[in-house]
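Open question from group meeting: does this chain pack into something compact, or does most of it stay loose? Before anyone orders reagents, we agreed to write out a predicted structure and look at it together. Recording both the input and the output here so the notebook holds the full record.
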Amino acid sequence: MTLALALLGSTGSIGRSTIEVVRHHPERLRVATLAAFGRDLDRLESQARELAPELVAVYDEERAREFARRLPDLEIVAGAEGVRAAATHEAVDRVVAAIVGAAGLAPTHAAVVAGKDVALANKEALVVAGPLLMREARARGVEIVPIDSEHVALHQALRCGAPHEVRRLILTASGGPFRQRPRESWDAITPQEALAHPTWEMGRKISIDSATLMNKGLELIEARHLFDVAPEAIDVVVHPQSLVHSMVEFADGSWIAQLSVNDMVFSVQYALSFPERWANDFPRLDPGALGALEFEPLDEERFRSISLARQAVAAGGSAPAVLNAVNEVAVHAFLDERIGFPAIVETVETVLDRHQPGVVESLEDALHWDAWGRRRANEELSSGN
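Structure tokens returned:
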């Protein structure tokens, strides 16, 4: 049986890794729909010509019109409704949700409501509306399998024991490019320096999140919902080589860790093949060449993002959505060189401290609080505080 995919965020790094997996398994996988913002129409055109999908969604409407002129015989749809159409298309069996940021929430929610299984690379969807998405998935018998390497590692390790046997989940973090840089020099950090991740090649937004370690804060919240584990049973440890992708400690003192080469094709294939394992010829890890594996305790004073994520989880309701929204705004302000690197986390902390959490019972609630957090972040940045 061939699994038909909706690939949301096809021109990004996860989208490209997904297409590589599809190329390796043409008898098992095909792409039924593609969706992208439209910034890279040349890449999207190449993907459409290679994969021959039934439908392509381009979020930016002007670029959608241009794309339609390039491929007049293909069904092209535009805007948020177009992306939703790609996610819920009748031919689709599984949705690869790889649109960056809170923008990925609505189509992911639509896919779940439509009864589509989801391979989830967009951690922000569960951060903003985790209880809602997981409740909808359970009600419809929908499987949400993670793509993030850390959560794929946990997903695999957790298969080794029963839920009541789990003591802790351990997320590993590379520590980013500033793990050893003196804290007093952080005001001078440039976007170019922050984008230079030491072990992974990623998009701009997640690269900055990795530099602040906000990505680990978001992953902590995501893990809490994916695996139904109390946040106090989730820890973060620094592992500079990024070869041990995460670990589970069981009640008897046993640890299960998952290792692989630093390439997202492994995580993508796991999310698409689960519950099976498919053979492939991707690069293999050579244990004999590893040398020593380093682990360090997380310095939460140096990297405040983890504490802020725990604060948001404890507050509940809309707090995680606000955390994520403010972070997205602050990251873009830093990339535009309107604020310094330390101001990213400082802005998140200021807004979160002042926020009185509200309820998130619907998609509309989640989007409301996301928009609220963005407004407050922009107000804070405009005030110069």
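Observations to bring back to the group:
The mean pLDDT is 95.
Residues 151-262+289-383 form a domain with the Rna Polymerase Sigma Factor; Chain: A fold (CATH 1.10.1740.10).
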